[in-house]
Task: structure prediction
Amino acid sequence: MTEPLAFEKSRASLPGPRLPAAGVPEVAPADILPAGALRSTPPRLPRLSEPELMRHYSRLGAMNYSISKNFYPLGSCTMKYNPVVNEVAASLPGFAWLHPYQPEDTVQGALELMWDLEQALCAVVGMDRMSLQPAAGAHGEWTGLRMIQAYHEDRGDERTEVLVPDSAHGTNPASAALCGFRVVEVKSAPDGRVSLPDLEGKLNERTAAIMLTNPNTVGTFEEEILEIAEMVHAVGAKLYYDGANLNALMGICRPGDMGFDVVHLNLHKTFTTPHGGGGPGAGPVGVKHELEPFLPRPTVRKENGHYRFDQERPKSIGRVRSFYGNFGMLVRALTYILAMGGDGLSQASLDAVLAANYLRSRLDGLLEFPQPPPCKHEFVASARSLPNGIKALDLAKGLLERGFYAPTIYFPLIVPEAVMVEPTETESKATLDAFTEAVAEIVRLAQSEPDRLREEPTSLPVGRLDEVAAARNPVLRWSPRAAD
Ligand SMILES: *Cc1c(COP(=O)(O)O)cnc(C)c1O
Result:
C-alpha cells in the first residue's frame, strides 16, 4: 500500500517524451532570455514513461478518501455530494475558456451569471447586495469585517472591538484580529447558546460588531437572536453572520430577517462546489443597504438588459481578490441552485436536519450528548465517557479503519472530547445505519480491547501519524539535495 514518489521511481536512462515538431523556427533560450534568467543545470524532473506516470497517479488517487468513495461526516464542513452536472456546466467552453481581461461586451453571459447568482444568494440570506470576490469563508469574514470597519470610520465613529462567542469557528477571531480589531470572547450558556448576561456586559460604544453562527457550532439555534440583534444595534454595532454552513436554513429562515447586517456563505459547503484539499473555494459576502457603498470593487450592474462592471465605488474597501473571484465555483453554485429550485433548497435543509436528528438519536447511548435534542444540521457528541482512556481521537481513527471519514474532533472547544457530526441531506438511511454500527463496534472494542483500538488504523496506507512532528517540523516538499 505504499507508493514511492515519482522522483524515486525516476529512471535516468529513460529518454523522455518524443514531441512532434512545433512548426515554428527553433530559438536558442540565450537569444531571448537575459543571462540571469537562464539556468545552468537542467531541472531535476522525474523521468517516467506515460503508463508508469498514469499508474502512479491512479494509485495515489485510489489511496485518497473522498466524498465520491464513502460517507464524510466532517462536522461544520458540509461534505455533501457535489452533482456531476455542475462540472459539466463549469466546463462548457463558453465559461471555461473565458479570459478575465476580455471586454465586457464579449462576456455578457458570464456577467449575467454573476448577477443571477448574486440575486439568488441575496434571496436565500435576506441581504440587499453581495460581493462574489472572496475566495473562502475566512476571506469572506475578513471582507465583511473590513466593510463594517469602513462603515464606522466613514461616520467618524472609532470602534475597536469585535465580540466572538467561545463556540465560534477559529476563523472568526482570526479574521477580526487580522482587521486590527481586539477580539472579546462571549461566553456560552450550558445549553451551548450565547449567554445574554455575558453579552450585555461586553457590549459598549467600542463594539464594532459581533460575529455569530446560527445554528451555532453545537448545532443549536440561537432562539434569542432577535433580542441579541436589538441589544447589538442599540449600542451602534453590527451583526455579522457566519453562514459557512447554511444547510439548516435554506428557504426556511434568513439571517437578514434575524437582524444580521452582513453574511458570508461558503459555496464550497452549502452550494455543492467541491472542497477539501485546499481549494479553490468561494465565500461571497452579502450586506444590507447601509453597508452597500463599502462593497469590494467591482460589482456587476444591470442596465437596460446589459451587464457591466461597476468600478465607480468611491467608498469601496477596494478589490479583495484578483479579477472577480473563483468564477468556476460561481458557475457550479448557480447550476445547483437552478437545478434544485426554491422548493428543492428548502427540502435539502429539511432533509439535512432530519438526517442529523436521526443519526443523533441512533448514537444516543453510545456517546454522550452535552446538549439536548433536537439539533439542526449537525450535532456535537462527547467521547468523554468512553472507558479505558479511549479518546475522541481513537474513535476517529477507528472510524477510518471501518471505511468512514472521521467526524470533526476537539471542536467546538466548549465541549470536552468533542465529536462533531454532520451527515448532510445527501446520505441514505442505510449509510447512517452503517455508521452507527461502526460506532457501536468501536464502543465495544473500547471496553474489550482498548489496546487494539489504540493501534488502529492498521489497514490503510498510513497508520497513526506523529501529528506533533508533522505540525512542528513539516516536510512539504521533496528536495533533490535531501535525496542525494
Ligand atoms: C468552514 C467554516 C469557516 C471557514 O471557511 P473556509 O472556507 O475554510 O475559510 C468559517 N466558519 C464556519 C462555521 C465554518 O464551518
